[in-house]
């Protein structure tokens, strides 16, 4: 009997950790799917993906993370609200500590534009220098915490049964694909190159492994990690509304506005149908 329990426990751990690693590997998908527009002046596909990211992040907050937090048996509406505000405030503080220097970027762009004919070699050197915006790191932090919750869900699912674990894993995989595409676009816009963005997304995937480990180890006190859902919601709200939307609003012609609207609707719709039919 003891041997059977040990064997079942080992199988549960292997399934949960492997499932979390599989979800983390979705971060490899965008580099093969998203077209390379680094050398192009106009980046319509990137603009569309940024809009999809906004829609999927907002839908994730209001259709997935917060409803799941409120449905928890140990949930307190006031505490969930406070943790959501706390997530917003922490991300705001992080950006204040590590501010973006947009004015310097504009000055460098103008000066290099004026000198492009007289100092070609100098501008080539400047163009290779990329300044990564705080938006990218904030998005990575939010994704790491979000992956923590996904890993916890996977671990908790496999702790119940293999069937529950597999259905939970399938739902999270489908849920994560549009997220990873949008996150990849945010990282590219923030100054990461394609390979750096891919490596960064793989690193945030380790949050899933940590979450699965925590879920199995602290399975008897899952309410102690309830704060993660609203805190992540606050982070996603900050990245989507404070950082990404203003960047999209810089493109204010009718064609770009329509493309952005379509992207937001696509992001919202994908998460809506995933939550509605998969849960």
Share of residues in strands = under 5%
Rg is: 21 Å
Oligomer: single chain
Shape descriptor: globular
- First-last Cα distance: 35 Å
Write down the overall mean pLDDT.
Answer: 78
Helicity level = over 70%
Q: Note the run of SSEs as H and E.
A: HHHHHHHHHHHH
Structural class: mainly alpha
| Low-confidence parts | 1-8, 103-109, 111-129
Q: How would a textbook summarize the main sheet?
A: none
How many DSSP E strands?
A: 0
Count of DSSP helices? 12
Keywords:
single chain, 279 residues, mainly alpha, 12 helices, 79% helix, globular, disordered N terminus
Question: What's the layout of helices and strands?
Answer:
Elements: H1 2-24, H2 29-33, H3 44-70, H4 77-97, H5 102-114, H6 120-127, H7 134-160, H8 162-189, H9 194-204, H10 206-217, H11 228-249, H12 254-277
Helix pairs in contact: 1-7, 1-8, 1-10, 3-8, 3-11, 3-12, 4-11, 7-8, 7-9, 7-10, 7-11, 8-9, 8-12
Question: What report would you give on this structure?
Answer:
The chain has 279 residues and is mainly alpha-helical. The chain is 79% helix and 0% strand. The chain is built from twelve helices and no strands. Helix 1 packs antiparallel against helix 7 (134-160), helix 3 packs antiparallel against helix 11 (228-249) and helix 8 (162-189) packs antiparallel against helix 9. The protein is globular and about 55 Å long. The model is unreliable at 1-8, 103-109 and 111-129 (pLDDT under 50).
